[in-house]
Hints:
The chain is an all-alpha fold. The protein has a domain at 95-297: Orthogonal Bundle (MetI-like fold), CATH 1.10.3720. The protein contains 14 helices and no strands. Helix 7 runs antiparallel to helix 10, helix 8 packs across helix 9 (202-213) and helix 10 crosses helix 14.
Amino acid sequence: MTVTVPRTSAPAPAPAPSRHRRHRSRRVASSGAFAVISIAAVALFLLPIAWIFTTSLKPTSEIFAIPAQLLPQQPTLEHFGEVLSDGALLQMFGNSLTVGAGATVLSLLLGVPAAFGFARYRYRLSGALLGAALVTRMFPPVALALPFFLQFRELGLINTTTGLIIAYIPIVLPLVIWMLEGFFRQFPEELLEAARMDGLGTLRTLVRIVIPLSRPAIAVAALFGFLAAWNEFVIALSLTRTPDAQTMPVGIASYITQFQTVWGQMTAASVLYLLPVLVVTLIAQRGIIAGLMSGATKG
C-alpha cells in the first residue's frame, strides 16, 4: 500500500515593486530635497533683512545687549522718527529717485533700439560691437570711479544729479541691452515680415509693432536697470560731496563715523530705503515672471 504525501507548494515570491511606485518614490525624494534647499536659500536671504528690520525697532540699549536677540523686547519707532526728521536724508532719498529714474529712462531710450538692431540686423562686426557695448558691465564700479571723477571735474558735473545720471548710464545701459537683445532675437519673424509688407520702415516697425508686444520684457529690463542705479554706492560716493546731490546709499553709510556706528538710525534708514523697491517687486512679481519667461515662448 502506497501512501501519497501531499506536496506542499513553495510560497509565492513577493511581487516586485512596480516601476510606477519606484518612480513616485524617487519623485517624492527629489521634491523633498528641493523643498529643503529652497527653504534654506530663502532663510539665508531673508535673515539679514529680518535682522535689519528688527534692529530698527530696538531701543539703543537692546541693540548692544549681549547676548543679541532677534526680536525687540520693547519695540520703538524712535529711530524712524529721527530719520524722517532729517531733511538732508529725505533730500538724498529724492536724489535716488531722480537719478535712478533718469538713468533708467535714458538707458531705455538708447537700449531698446540698440538691442533690436543687434538682434535683428546681424553683420560681420555686430558681435564685436555688442561685446563692446556690454564690456562696461564687466568692470567693478570702483574701476570707473576715478575716470568719471576726472572727466566730470573738467565738465563741472561734480556734486550734481545730472552728473550721476550720466555716470549711471554705462551701468544701466549694458544691462538693458543684454536683457532685451536675447528677447528680440526670438521675436516672431512673421510679424516683422508682415510689417515690411505693409510698408513700415525699421523705426516704425519698432515703435508700432515690436515695443507694444515687448512691454513685459521691457518692464523687466527697466526694473532691473532701476535697481542697479538705485543700489549703486561707489560712484555716488566719488562724485558727490553734499546732500544736495548725494543718494541714499551714501547717506546710510554716513552713519558709520570714525568713533561709532549709529546702528538704530542706519537700520531705520535702510528699511525706509528698502520698502519701496520691495513693495513694487512684490506687486509686479507676476509681470516680472511673465517678462522673463516670454522670451522662452517666442518663435
